[in-house]
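Throughout our pipeline, every protein is held as a single compact record rather than as scattered files. Such a record has a labelled line for the sequence and another for the backbone structure tokens. The remainder of this section carries one protein's record, kept here as part of the documentation:
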Amino acid sequence: DTAPAMTAVLCALLAGASGAAPARLGGSSLLARSTPTSAMRMIIEDRPRTEEAPTANKVNIPDYVRRILEDPRAPKRRPEDPERVERVRSRAKQAMIDARNIAVSDDDSDAWWREPLNVPVGGRAVTADEPLRVLVAGGGLAGLIVAAACHAKGMKVALFEQASSYAPYGGPIQIQSNALRALQQINPAIYEELVEAGTVTADRVSGLKIGYDAGNVLAGQYEKGDWLVRFDTVGPAMEAGLPPTVVVDRPVIQQIFVKHGFPADTVRIRSRVASYEKLGEGQGVKVTLEDGTVAYGDVLVGADGIWSSVRKQMFGLDEGAGGFAASGAAGGAINNAEERQVARDTMSIAKSARRRYSSFTCYAALCEHKASNIEEVSYQILLGKDKYFVSTDAGGERQQWFALIRSPPGGIDEEPTDNVPEPKLERLRREFIATAPGDNNGDVWDDFALELINATPESEVKRRDLYDGAPLLRDPSRWLAPWADGPVAIAGDAAHPMMPNLGQGGCQSCEDGYRLVEELATVRQTSEVSDALARYSRVRAVRTGIIQGLAQLGSDLLVDFDKMMNIPVVGPFFLFMTQVSMPFVLRYLYTPNF
């Protein structure tokens, strides 16, 4: 595991540079009173700067990326014509309507899961006539995938979603090559329609840019908007024999899963799992919902998100570890007042749930706007001091963007007033200002961030503090079944919440669903369920733990890029290693085996 080692080396170099500063600058009383970070900035700003940055840093597609994009096997970018733009946008809008009208169980008094299991000690045989009965907690992406995978293998499945309405949540999702392979193996019809509905993003360049003028003579000079790192995602996908990444609207994904994934009455809304009881070896599990309803099954899968109630019981967390948080099925429906309440409540829930606050609050939106660099760039990050701006093509001449700003948890924006009708946008315009005198750091930003911010209505901007969690491998007593407890297992964000930098949160949920159900498909006697879930969790915990670590490390380092890139030798070396390492990171992510 070289990432922590590299981080330690870089931190040591940073510490050494800041520690040497007083000797170089004499007995400056101001420097003596400064923190190491502020002292580092003072040293950096005193260094001479070059007149101009290298022009190669301004080219969107360098030759080494162009060669891969021109490979006959690679998808070729075609500008979206008005007909396609209208088709993508209208389907997304229709899917949002369909999501609210999704077929759910209204009268489930005779549902199979209401019948108490009459299974002898030691279990029963699993046959085509008496298949495994699987209960799924959570109707977000992870829950939909698990339910579809179970149904594809002939299992009975019931999905319990806490939300009072099954509404679309969040913006489009990058379904990367590894996730597409998992879905292809789960259900070819789902895969084919997702690819047809999606917009390919692997046909252009991705990478990191500097958001403002930075650097110096010794470490290199960069102008705002210059590329720091550029890479393609299609090369590693082709090497692994995987399909190229596509982006699909979340409600369209829901629509496709409901259409092809399972019977119409599989989903039950207003149904949050409160607790579960293991009934004995091979005898299944009894689940109690918050309204007192009882459900019985051979298996319970907790795909109920980062604040999972199933995880809370499995790991013996405090009672406060559960609570309302925007679910994967309905969180996008919350209004501004609920958004502020969630921000306050989440702080206390996170402590009990042993979740880590990332130090970032995130503003996110989807805007109907044709980006100025859309024909060459599909994904980019503008880096700054204590903040960064992420944007990605969402198809249909739209851009999905995220502004991540280092802030204390629980922060809220003011209510709109006549004087300040757009409080969120006003803050973002100050944070990413493209004219002098600049932001609070005195930095004048590349105007691409404001291009997207100014194309977005206030009502479309959502704010949420970002939390993740440590890999569930710390307790040696759980190493044989890190995500399982007899006939109960967790998946998706319940098992591995991660920062969004790699775009792998939902993708890893796809892999979870595939691997979990592949293991359950080997069960011939219900007494084998526990071993199958233990195998699933052992395989998945290691891979997702590495990816969690990479995502967390990447997020932590992104906001310190400005400090590192200004240090002679270290800055250029760090950028070089980041560029060199990206193909290897992508090769690890894009595997056909999981």
Notes: Confidence is low (pLDDT under 50) at residues 1-51, 326-333. The chain is about 35% helix and 15% strand. Residues 282 and 527 are 4 Å apart (CA to CA). The longest strand covers residues 356-367.
